[in-house]
């Protein structure tokens, strides 16, 4: 069992605590939460609260899971590494490419496993799509279109850090868009150029409520992604190849049990197939993969290149949205 401390007990930290509390692979020892008012709720779950991060970085724990706000990730990763702890950092790994490089390099140098909260990679439909791409089933890849909306599970308002430009730049990029760029980079490699626009259509949030991005990959294929902060839940993944297109429709959020995932594979009107997948807990699957890598059972399936490049692309998208220029990450 991996002796773990969870850092942050906000919306997402509570999701993770509920998942790991009764998971055989994890011994969740401590929950770091500066808001003392939350400590009763932590105790009610049978967990032990501590008020500062330093209190968690003791011999009692081998690894930390960071669900702190985005601007804390760099320093929290580096402090974990300095204390010799494996670290799972929620997305975005960093708000800057330099920060991501420093975190990845520090973990590598110390021989510690760095996990990142991009759970969509563990969805069965995405795993199937990855196999199909590797086998060349779609032919030459021309283009992808991905869209992800915020599903209003989290209350957002103008005072939330999630709607501030400094901590959640380019509208929904750090909430939803970053999951999409993670997938695209893992499929197609290095991004050559990005052009992005943001808008504020409804709420007057500093960061805006929609971001729309065009990408071109060094391999030549193109992609568009949309992340929308204020519309009912929507999650679609399309990949268009010369022989087949694939559409994955998530009727539910990856974080929320229930609902269905369908995958349509279309070669022609006479040759197409609809595959249904049950919802699975991809968030726990990701954490378990990280723990398995720490135990030496299997490598964690993210490369350093992918983790760093995703943040280089985030930085380029933010710059493009601000300047109106095409940016080459
Ligand atoms: N993989 C995924 O799909 C998801 C990932 N996330 C990621 O999880 C992270 C947290 O998001 P969310 O839970 O919604 O945010 P919240 O603001 O709800 O929670 C953040 C928590 O971190 C605590 N915190 C703040 N500063 C520190 C600190 N210095 N040390 C320890 N804890 C601290 C906060 O305490 P206090 O309230 O006292 O400030 C709060 O409990 C974000 O990075 C987000 O991107 C979120 C949702 C889904
Ligand atoms: O930070 C986040 C907030 O909400 C999204 C959609 O609900 C999550 O997937 C995301 O990671």
UniProtKB/TrEMBL annotation:
<dbReference type="InterPro" id="IPR055170">
    <property type="entry name" value="GFO_IDH_MocA-like_dom"/>
</dbReference>
<dbReference type="GO" id="GO:0033712">
    <property type="term" value="F:1,5-anhydro-D-fructose reductase (1,5-anhydro-D-mannitol-forming) activity"/>
</dbReference>
<dbReference type="Pfam" id="PF22725">
    <property type="entry name" value="GFO_IDH_MocA_C3"/>
</dbReference>
<dbReference type="GO" id="GO:0000166">
    <property type="term" value="F:nucleotide binding"/>
</dbReference>
<dbReference type="Pfam" id="PF01408">
    <property type="entry name" value="GFO_IDH_MocA"/>
</dbReference>
<dbReference type="InterPro" id="IPR000683">
    <property type="entry name" value="Gfo/Idh/MocA-like_OxRdtase_N"/>
</dbReference>
<protein>
    <submittedName>
        <fullName>1,5-anhydro-D-fructose reductase</fullName>
        <ecNumber>1.1.1.292</ecNumber>
    </submittedName>
</protein>
<keyword id="KW-0560">Oxidoreductase</keyword>
<dbReference type="InterPro" id="IPR051450">
    <property type="entry name" value="Gfo/Idh/MocA_Oxidoreductases"/>
</dbReference>
<feature type="domain" description="Gfo/Idh/MocA-like oxidoreductase N-terminal">
    <location>
        <begin position="3"/>
        <end position="118"/>
    </location>
</feature>
<dbReference type="InterPro" id="IPR036291">
    <property type="entry name" value="NAD(P)-bd_dom_sf"/>
</dbReference>
<feature type="domain" description="GFO/IDH/MocA-like oxidoreductase">
    <location>
        <begin position="127"/>
        <end position="245"/>
    </location>
</feature>
